[in-house]
Every structure is written in C-alpha cells, then in structure tokens.
Amino acid sequence: MASETAEEQAAEFLSPELIAEFGDSSWKVRLEAMEKLHELVDSNPGFEAELITRVLSKKPGWKESNFQVTTKLYGILQLQSQKLPSFSKACAALTIPAMIDKMGDIKLKKAAGDCLTAYAEALSLQFVLSQSYDPLKKLKAPKALADSLAWINQQLEDFGIAGLAIRELIDFLKFALGSANAAVRTNAVSVLGILRRFIGPGIRSFVEDCNSALLAAIDAEFAKVADMEPPQVSKGAVEESAGSTAAVEELFPKVDISNQFTTPLLEECGDANWKVRKEGLEKVAAIVDANKRIKPNLGGLPGALKLRLADSNKNLQILTMEICANLAVAMGKPFDKYARILCSNVASCLTDQKDNVRSASIAALEAFATQSGLDSLVSSLAVSLVTNSPTLRKDLLVWLTSFCNGAKERDVTLPDLSPLAPPVLQCLQDRSVEVRKAGQNFLPILMVNVGYDAIVSKCSDLKGAAKSAIMPMLEAAKPAPPPRPPSAAGAAKAIPPERGALSSLLRLARPEAKPDARNAMARPLGRGTLSNLPRLARPGVKPDAYPTKAPPPERNALSNLPHLAHPGVKLGARPATALPGAPSKIGTAKPTARNLPTMPGPPRGHELSVMFSRGLEVGTRYSS
C-alpha cells in the first residue's frame, strides 16, 4: 500500500485538516496534531493501524526534526500496538528501522525503546530482533549500537529466550564484539552473560574464535554469572523452562552418531597392537568431542569400551575412561543404561596403584552420577566394594561421601542406598585404617538414608568380636532423634522453684466432697471467698490486731506454717485434730462449728497458701 493511497483511505476517519497539520511547517502545530491523533486512536479501536502508520511515515515522517513531535509520534505507534486489534507485523516492520536509528539519541531512546518493547509484547521479541539486526549493523554511531545492546540485554531479562533464534542472536553479538568501540564490546559481552545464565557453559563454544583479549573478558563474565539462576521471566506468554529447552535444542541438536562406530573402527579398538588400539580410541574420542549432544544410541561401542577398561596399557585405560565421561556428558540422563554396563569396570580401575588411573576413574564415576543419577550406579558400586582392595575401597568410599554431601547441599534427593550397607559393614572390618576411617565417614549418610535399625539388622550374621567392634561405630553414627513436640502440660507455666516445696506438701489427693445438708446450702467459693473468711484468732493475738491489708507473701511459704514461723506459739498448743486433706503436723485441735467457714469441703492447696500469706493458721480454724 502506497503512502498516497493510505492518505486517501485514512480520510474516511481522519479529517483532511488534521492530516494537513501533520506536515505543517510549525512544530507546535504538528505537535498539537499528534496529540489530537493520540486521543483519536485511544478512543477508536476500530481504526486501521497500517493506514495510520503509512500516513505518519509521510507526514511528519521518520526524519522529523523536533524531538517532542517524534516522541509523540512514537507514543501513537506504541498505543496502536496496545489498543488496535488491526496492528500487525507489517506495521512494526515499517517503523522498527526508524526507531533503531534513534536508540542513540538521549532525548528519544526511551520513547523508541518503550515502543519496541510494546511491539515485542504484542508480537514477539524474536520478530522485533529479527527486524532489528540489519538496521543495527548499518548504524554509524557506536553509541546507538551500544544503547541498542543494552536494550536487548534488558529484554532478555524480561522476556527470557523462549522462541528466540539463538544462533542468529549470537552471530549478531559476534559482529558487535568486533566493534572498535569499547562500550559496544562491553555491552555485547553482557548480553552473552545473560545467555550463559539461560543456556549454560556450552555457549562458549560459539565464541571461541574471538581473540584472546575478548575471550578473557567473556570468560570473566561467564565466571561471574556461573552460579546465578536464569532471570525470572516477567513478560511474554511462553514458559521460561520450555523456552530454555528449545533454545538448547536449537543450539545443540542431538545427533545420532551410532553409524560412525563402524565394525572396522571397533575392531581397530580391539587390535592386538596397542598402537592400533590407541588410534582407534582416538578416532572414537574425536567423534564424541565433535558432537556436544548425542542421542542414546551407541551401537556396539559400549562393549568395545568395556574391554578397553581392562587394557594392560594404562594410558589406554585412562583414554577409555575419558571417552566414557564425555559420552555421559553428551548424552545426559539417557546414559543411565550405559552407566550400568560400564560402572563396575570403571570402578575396578581404582585398584591400580597409579594416581592418574584412579583419578580418571573417579572423574568418570562423577560424570556418570551427575548426568544419569547415582541410582544407576548403586548396585554396581555395592559389588565393587566387596573387592578386597584397600585402595579401591578407600577411594570409592571417599568419593561416595563427597558426592552425597554435595547432593545434599544442592538439595538433590539421594536414591535408596541400602545395597551399600553390607559391603560398608565389611569395610568397617577392613585391616586398613584408611578404609575403616572412610567407612566411618560414609556411615552417617548411609544411616540417614537406610535407617539405624535396618543397618543393625545386617549385623546379625557377624561374629561376636566383629559385632562388638562395629556396634560402637553404629551407635556413634546414629542420627539424633527429632525433637518431640511440646505437650500441653509442658506449655503451661512452670511453678517457681521457691514455691515448689509448699506445692508438693499440699498436693494431696482427696475425693470430691459429697453433697450433704450443709454443703447443699453452701455457696461455691468465688474469687473473693478467701478475703471474706472470718479472721480467726491465734493464741495471744486479738482479732483487732490483725492488719486490714494482708502483707505481701514471703518468698518461702513454709515460713507461714504455725509451728515454724510464729513466735509465741507453743508446740503443745497445736490442735489435736489434723485438718482433712493436710499434713498431720499442721494442728490437731478439735474444730467447732462456730469457727468453720461455709465451704464445700476442705480448702485446697492454693487456698492454704493464700491463708498462710495473710497470717492465718490452719489449725486454729477448728479450735474452740
């Protein structure tokens, strides 16, 4: 559609006067016309977006000199993408190159960037970027390119990499890395860092052809973000995980390499001449290295590798274990079926006295467990631990302890380790101190996973001396029981220690008083009952001498007992009859009805405590 035709068609819903004002010589008139059009677009969702875009491309045009008019123009384009259902990729393609050109303008880059972001939300980030690469490569101002890279960096954080053509983006970043401007190179490295967080370290292989200085800067950025999680996607409709997986699949498609392991090559790996075997293994290693992601189909290769793990030439053993580790990394989780085949043979190399052979074995086991999971190795490792080799047992137990502790730190659930229990108990009886120590270090992990009782049950077949030696080790490694939840009684407030003696003295079991004629007419004790009790006389003390206010209770309530704390009271004056429900030493005087308060049964312990604190004697309540 030509701009002239678009102007004629736009006259159906835009007045000729308004269209003329778009190209007026006065910037104020043009700005006012832009504001009017903004209001019209906002209130009329039926407008045709492409017609308006083509009219604006002519008047005021993408070369508008006044930044206020251009800012309003970009605002109209952004509003179209948000309000008009007719907005399409054609509208965006017409305007993206013009806005890319303004990304370096300090007055316009925000308006241009906001409009491009709105396009990405309405269409897709991939479409906006695909329309931007050519204009970006043609920019003459380095600042515009640097600011555009900063905008791309922010969009990757907001949108993620779902749906992106990653190879296309990396090619553009490599173009930017070749810029003579330091700001452009720095921003390009930052974008690579964001991609590293989404894709992983494999992205480095796509920039290895950069010069050493650039590679050093890229490696420094990758090291900085190595432990960072991918950014939380806040825009776009596609899930982050799905987008990341698709991007990895696009960058590193899985390849079927089984047809490359031909019969002549496998025969070469098994030749009687070690030099021929070496050449065959090197060819296999080259095939694996050339394919970062492979399908879980290796043909007859696992059988050939298994034979070479027992090769008499130690260098060929090491080379074979390196191939096995690389295969695990390239295949990932599906390698578990091959790990079960190769694990025992790899572990058997730990019997070797050479450190480099054992190091290669541990590296291969680490790759197996990391990529395919420890569950695929447990049964084979249990068989290997039975081997009566101190070096194998020690190194294997040390590695198992390290790997399991690392899995716990990464919050990875360990598989069932119960097959390891019998051979670990054998290791605890080994003659080698290092083996026994390694077994003791692994024992707590095993006990948490399997359970104390399950491991103790495995000791039933042990002889007396062996069992006596192992049981203390099991007891020492026994996990502490989980803390018991607090009971309702424990949650209650504890009695202070100084009052505990009196509470213990008065905490006597007594049956509930049966209702009789007197109790039937008696009122139940209320909160203030004790304060209304008649002031009962003590020997030698007049009732009027009692204070109207009770003194504060003493720290030791036992001091209020009549025969211990009140001078002038003779031991012979103790009442003759003991108070029901109270200790016998608290008085033996015969009670009289005149001095008895109206109470439903004998006083309780807390009532006696209050009475003692007020200076009342229990025994005298019943004296005549």
UniProtKB/TrEMBL annotation:
Cytoplasm is among the record's keywords: yes
Transmembrane segments: none
One GO-annotated biological process of the protein: microtubule polymerization
SMART domains membership: TOG (SM01349)
GO function terms (MF aspect): microtubule plus end polymerase; microtubule plus-end binding
Cytoplasm as UniProt keyword: yes
Keywords from the UniProt entry: Cytoplasm, Cytoskeleton
One CC-aspect GO term: cytoskeleton
Broad class of where this protein is predominantly found: cytoplasm
InterPro entries linked: ARM-like (IPR011989), ARM-type_fold (IPR016024), TOG (IPR034085), XMAP215 (IPR045110), XMAP215_CLASP_TOG (IPR048491)
Residue segments, region Disordered: 545-609
Subcellular location: Cytoplasm, Cytoskeleton
TOG domain sequence ranges: 1-231, 250-483
Protein name as it appears in the record: ARM repeat-containing protein
Organism: Linnemannia elongata AG-77
Organismal lineage: Eukaryota, Fungi, Fungi incertae sedis, Mucoromycota, Mortierellomycotina
